[in-house]
């Protein structure tokens, strides 16, 4: 039996039953990577010798009667996480030789749970793209169409999962970096509630691995099934033991419902600032039809929904004001000059982004205050609904575009060009207020590229969108291996 595309849950059962060993699973995964990754380029830093040693240790631990949630399961880790003894570069050439001395907290949790780490997966330069390519490791291709992107910034992890390179992966998300690659590659991902999972050690080199609370950014799980997302999330959640973990334990509330027919869902497929491509709209409608067929209460409009235009504006302001914080003074001054040249009447998202890059602290505080109003609006909405279904990006995976100036790039939506970064508005809908969002495949594609949607849930009720993802997987299918 070939194990590479089996779910982690199924592998764990087979290991417990003695049907396979971790050494066998690990050797099979490594063989597949060595056979297929030359064209996908997902695994940028292999760690096969230590993986084989960890697999032998897992088999010995099982023989001693040890029980751990991921014992012996082969996994991958996004390159941006520190792993002792392996380079952490974030794709930045000047740090190609930077090797941290200790594991990120999430890598430590993976290992403590018994996972076998096969290696690290590719990312874009500085994690700042919805593609995954950099000068050090090259370009990661979409397993469905090698001329197209696998997404970013967790594109290597999504491509690895779709290619059968390990059963699970961990990534991160600030601009859809978990959800977009999952959507482009036909796999699952979960962006946790902001602050739910500790992020220490997921830090750009050579910065020290400190337990800082980051705005907007989260770390989270990727998998080939919805249940596997929950399995991995349970390993990842919890405060940093150096800070809140000193005094706090974390207990997530159960899902609001177990039956599909009990869910109340708001479905969105239109955004006021850009079109939704026909393929993505069809995916949203496929999920909506499955919800209706399953007896769920489905609405297409609600006066409780926070204003989407203001939400996108706030997201861009918060995201881009922080993204340039470490720029050299000369580059920052160039941005100030560009922003000063923008007409006061220009309210496009391009203009919003430029102005945000030179925000004052006063500007940021005002945007943050308006964010709190949006959070309150979401609380009111989730008193009436259990989840919101909407796109992740407006298109399936697009052809590689390596123009170094993201502001010059364009995204084609059914023949109409939009600024490249405008596609972030759907991802930002959950990111700006810090809500959990689960990316799922929107049915089994019969031809062409996969399409996903996201299920946005109430803050700190991550099990609600995850349970809905499981129920939808049962009705519309889930991961399908690329042909």
How would you sum up this structure, described in words?
The chain is α+β, with helices and mostly antiparallel strands. The chain has a domain at 8-254: Amidase signature (AS) domain (Amidase signature (AS) enzymes). 36% of the residues lie in helices and 15% in strands. It has 14 helices and 17 strands. The chain has helices spanning 8-16, 22-40, 48-63, 105-112, 155-163, 179-185, 226-236, 278-293, 308-323, 329-340, 349-356, 361-381, 425-431, 463-476; strands at residues 43-46, 74-78, 116-121, 133-134, 138-139, 141-142, 145-149, 168-173, 188-191, 218-223, 264-267, 297-299, 387-390, 410-413, 416-419, 437-441, 452-456. An eleven-stranded mixed sheet has the order 1-3-2-8-10-9-16-17-13-11-12, with helices on both faces. Strands 4-5 form a two-stranded antiparallel ribbon. Strands 6-7 form a two-stranded antiparallel sheet. A hairpin with a 3-residue loop joins strand 4 and strand 5 (138-139). Helix 9 (308-323) packs across helix 13 (425-431). The longest helix has 21 residues, at 361-381. The radius of gyration is 21 Å and the shape is globular. The mean pLDDT is 97.
């Amino acid at each position: 039996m070939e194990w590479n595309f089996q779910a982690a849950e199924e592998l764990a059962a087979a290991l417990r039953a003695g049907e396979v060993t971790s050494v066998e699973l690990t050797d099979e995964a490594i063989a597949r990577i060595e056979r297929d990754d030359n064209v996908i380029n997902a695994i940028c830093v292999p760690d096969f010798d230590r993986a084989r040693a960890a697999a032998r240790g897992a088999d010995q631990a099982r023989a001693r009667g040890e029980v751990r949630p991921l014992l012996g399961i082969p996994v991958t880790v996004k390159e941006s996480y520190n792993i002792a003894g392996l380079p952490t570069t974030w794709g930045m050439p000047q740090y190609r030789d930077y090797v941290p001395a200790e594991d990120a907290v999430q890598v430590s949790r993976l290992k403590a749970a018994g996972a076998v780490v096969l290696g690290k997966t590719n990312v874009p330069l500085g994690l700042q793209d919805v593609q995954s390519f950099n000068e050090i490791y090259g370009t990661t291709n979409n397993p469905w169409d090698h001329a197209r992107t696998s997404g970013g910034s967790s594109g290597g992890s999504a491509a690895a999962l779709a290619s059968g390179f390990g059963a699970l992966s961990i990534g991160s998300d600030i601009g859809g970096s978990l959800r977009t690659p999952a959507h482009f590659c036909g796999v699952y991902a979960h962006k946790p509630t902001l602050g739910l999972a500790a992020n220490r050690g997921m830090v750009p080199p050579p910065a020290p691995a400190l337990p800082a609370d980051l705005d907007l950014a989260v770390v989270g799980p990727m998998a080939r099934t919805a249940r596997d997302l929950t399995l991995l999330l349970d390993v990842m959640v919890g405060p940093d033991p150096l800070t809140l973990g000193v005094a706090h334990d974390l207990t997530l509330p159960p899902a609001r419902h177990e039956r599909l027919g009990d869910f109340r869902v708001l479905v969105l497929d239109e955004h006021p600032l850009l079109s939704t491509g026909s393929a993505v709209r069809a995916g949203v409608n496929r999920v909506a039809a499955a919800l209706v067929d399953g007896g769920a209460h489905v609405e297409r409009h609600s006066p409780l929904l926070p204003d989407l235009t203001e939400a996108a504006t706030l997201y861009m302001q918060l995201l881009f004001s922080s993204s340039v914080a470490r720029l050299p003074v000369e580059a920052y001054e160039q941005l100030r000059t560009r922003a000063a040249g923008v007409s006061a009447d220009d309210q496009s998202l391009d203009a919003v982004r430029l102005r945000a890059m030179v925000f004052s602290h006063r500007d940021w505080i005002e945007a943050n205050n308006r964010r709190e109003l949006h959070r309150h609006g979401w609380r009111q909405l989730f008193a009436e609904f259990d989840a919101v279904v909407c796109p992740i990006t407006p298109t399936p995976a697009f052809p590689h575009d390596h123009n170094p100036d993201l502001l010059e790039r364009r995204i084609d939506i059914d023949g109409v060009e939009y600024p490249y970064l405008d596609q972030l508005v759907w991802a930002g809908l959950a990111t700006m207020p810090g809500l959990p969002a689960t990316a799922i495949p929107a049915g089994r594609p019969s031809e062409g590229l996969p399409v996903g949607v996201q299920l946005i849930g109430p803050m700190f009720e991550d099990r609600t969108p995850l349970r809905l993802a499981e129920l939808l997987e049962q009705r519309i299918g889930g991961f399908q291996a690329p042909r």
